[in-house]
């Protein structure tokens, strides 16, 4: 069986980095602008960035859980 292009450990570390980045990004935005409501119309861009980072992080982490 061929060896994967990227080891599972690297993908898992990158996925966890995306999750942590999403949480830190949301926290810093809330502290800097005093707005914690991600569902308001003014914060839609922050919501999109947060969801994309978090979604790719969770998806990447879940995909490393399966055996190849």
What structural keywords apply?
68 residues; mainly alpha; 2 helices; 0% strand; elongated
How does this model look, in words?
Helices cover 68% and strands 0% of the residues. It is mostly helical and 68 residues long. The chain has a domain of 45 residues. It is built from 2 helices and no strands. It is elongated.
Gist of the model:
This protein is mainly alpha-helical and 68 residues long. It is built from 2 helices and no strands.
Average pLDDT reading:
87
Number of strands: 0
Helix fraction, binned, reads 55-70%
Gross geometry: elongated
Q: What is the radius of gyration?
A: 15 Å
Low-confidence stretches: none
| Distance N to C terminus | 10 Å
By secondary-structure content and strand pairing, the structural class works out as mainly alpha
User: How would a crystallographer describe the biggest sheet?
Assistant: none
* SS element count, helices: 2
Strand content: under 5%
H/E topology pattern? HH
Write the layout of secondary structure elements.
Blueprint: H1 8-33, H2 44-63
Helix pairs in contact: 1-2
């Amino acid at each position: 069986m061929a060896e994967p292009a990227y080891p599972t450990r690297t993908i898992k570390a990158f996925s966890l980095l995306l999750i942590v980045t999403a949480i830190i990004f949301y926290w810093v935005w809330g502290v800097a602008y005093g707005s914690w409501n991600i569902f308001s119309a003014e914060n839609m861009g922050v919501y999109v960035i947060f969801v994309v980072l978090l979604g790719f992080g969770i998806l990447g982490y879940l995909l490393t859980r399966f055996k190849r």
